[in-house]
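hey
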């Protein structure tokens, strides 16, 4: 796979640090794809989203949802099992994890709920009024005046 050097872009741009950092993260090859725990991202309306993460075996105390530096961090640390069970087969993974979701500008986490082994995180996009498209009314100045000289008057 090819690697690209974005150093010239860093030198020639001002205020685009987030874009450059995102490109560096995408282009880095040392990140292994993580598939645990499985999750869904759904669009519930024009400006609302829901992230659903399968967290079977975890309690509310074991889970943590935090927003910092433009990213959503979901972590789980399983507490010590006081009963010290002996499993013949253990198919439900309860290993610790950290899942990170990078949030776009103006996306805010509005809530989280844990039910039936699923952690649901609600997000909404709130675009400021200054950034929303707006229609500019074109003023009508009346009849257009033209300086038309009749041919008889010129000759």
């Amino acid at each position: 796979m090819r690697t690209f050097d974005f150093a010239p872009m860093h030198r020639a741009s001002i205020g685009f640090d987030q874009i450059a950092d995102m490109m560096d993260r995408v282009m880095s090859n040392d990140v292994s794809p993580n598939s645990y725990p499985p999750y869904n991202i759904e669009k519930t309306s024009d400006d609302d989203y829901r992230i659903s993460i399968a967290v079977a075996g975890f309690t509310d105390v074991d889970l943590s949802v935090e927003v910092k530096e433009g990213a959503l961090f979901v972590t789980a640390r399983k507490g010590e099992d006081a009963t010290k069970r002996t499993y013949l087969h253990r198919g439900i993974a309860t290993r610790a994890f950290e899942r990170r979701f990078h949030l776009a500008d103006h996306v805010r986490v509005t809530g989280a709920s844990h039910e039936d082994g699923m952690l649901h995180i609600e997000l909404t996009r709130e675009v400021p009024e200054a950034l929303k498209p707006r229609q500019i009314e074109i003023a009508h100045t009346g009849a257009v005046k033209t300086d038309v000289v009749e041919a008889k008057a010129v000759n």
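The chain has three helices and seven strands. The longest strand covers residues 107-115.
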